Amino acid sequence: MNKAVRFGKNTLADKLFLLGETLLLLVSSFAASYLYSLYQPVDQEMAAINAVLFTGCVMLCALSVGLYDQKLREDTGGVLKRVVITLLLSGILLELVIFSIVPSLHLGLSYSLIAAFLSMLTLTSFRMLFHYHDVTKISRRKVLILGSGERASIIERRMRRNVDKRNFEVHGFVFIDGDQLGHIPESKTIHFDYKTDLYEYAVENDIEQLVIACDERRNMLPVEHLFKCKTRGVDVIEILDFIEQETGQIAVNLIYPSWVIYSNGFEMNHRFKTSLDHRLNALLAIVVLCLLWPLMLITALAIYLDDGRRTGTSVFYKQIRIGIDGKPFPILKFRSMRPDAEKNGAKWASVNDDRVTKIGGFIRKYRIDELPQLFNIIMGDMGFVGPRPERPEFVEKLVKEIPYYNQRHNVKPGLTGWAQLKYPYGSTTEDAQEKLKFDLYYIKHRTLLLDLVILIRTVEIVLFGKGR
After folding, report:
1. What are the residue boundaries of the Bacterial sugar transferase domain, all occurrences included (predicted)?
2. Which end of the chain has fewer CB atoms < 10 Å from its terminal CB, N or C?
3. Is 468 domain-assigned?
4. What is the pLDDT of residues 333-346, one digit of tens each?
């Protein structure tokens, strides 16, 4: 299997981290059961069941608030805040859902509080210790970049931070004939006769992966040496696949048609994606609608009192967007802007946009304005997960300016998506191109598991106000 396809692959450090957190949660739960048993008898079998339930719920909620995001950058206070929110969510999940369905499993509220307190102390301490000592070093592979020109500089620019290089360590950039000079600092550029000595150099320096990133490939690479490296256990990978593997995006500016055609991914079971997929999305949308209708009613009332009553404008806003196969459809949202917001024509929304109302700013930040799109999902125009649908005025412009932009219309648009998790809100052509890199990655690797991960991680966007 192509390494780039292995979404969520774990290094040794990742496995140790997950194992450590699992053990700490189990220990915290058993310790809570023991303390609880000092004044209330506890059956050992029940204690074990509660430990498994507690650990599973906490880890699921930790995923939803971004604690398992490999590129999470938080200080001790930020980690503690996310751990506390994780434990609150897991408490709600346990007490209001699981124990309500099977009350016989419930040990008691005191047990849950003790387990949560012990977990808060142990998880925060463990995470700080793990990251302080940078345990990821034990599993970083040594990478040699074959190229030091314009293409290779993409790796240097996009992966400067340590958090971007959790899985690898760049040994250096090899100058290849035909490379454009000046893109990689001389201190990081390696000069040797790669045409005759590449294999020996890779062996002597314990290189584990070679990345083909030269500007000119035709008759420039020592194919025999690359073949020898590959047969002796040194991984050889294209820069496109390397960037996709390490960043969760596809470098649009490096794509060539044959790569798209012959690359793994981009397949779709048509029947599944048209029949079963729509039914699952519609069913889930109906369930969510039944749960969130009070919030939607309060939102509609707030918009009406804010300016709807005064202006006589609807609390809803319909707008034409481009869906699957480039077909337009009317999207439904809560109105978050003034009635005259587009008197001068279509315009990108921006941060601190003065067209946004007071209520609009709040509902956009926490994505509440998107909730009416549940009806679009039920109608089949959208799914829960997919590229966000864009307006036809902007699509016409972006298709001309950004290569492969039209390919995002090969799947249904979604209420949330991979790009929304990985890239902050943007309002320029450059932002659209950056988001396209993540959208294409999603289209290439979409599965039910990836959809589920995106849905769970969307909770983080809502809780921490990472919307617009």
Report:
1. 281-463
2. N
3. no
4. 999 988 887 777 77
444 and 314 belong to one structural domain:
yes
128 compared with 72, residue with greater pLDDT:
128
Candidates 458, 425, 419; CA nearest to 437 is 419
Alpha helices, DSSP H, located in 7-108: 12-37, 44-64, 76-92, 99-101
- Nearest to residue 254, comparing CAs of 155, 395, 171, 173? 155
Tokens found for residue 171: 């040994």
Cβ atoms < 10 Å from Cβ of 191: 10
CB neighbours of residue 116 within 10 Å:
22
Whether 323 maps to a domain, the answer reads yes
Q: How far apart are CA 429 and CA 435, in angstroms?
A: 10
Tell me the residue range of the domain where 119 lies: 3-135
> Angle at CA 281, nearest 5°, toward 278 and 285?
135
**Residue 445, Cβ neighbours under 10 Å: how many?**
20
**What is the per-residue pLDDT across 53-94, written as a single tens digit (0 to 9) for each?**
999 999 999 999 888 887 676 777 888 889 999 999 999 999
H or E element, residue 142:
strand 141-146
The pTM score is: 0.81
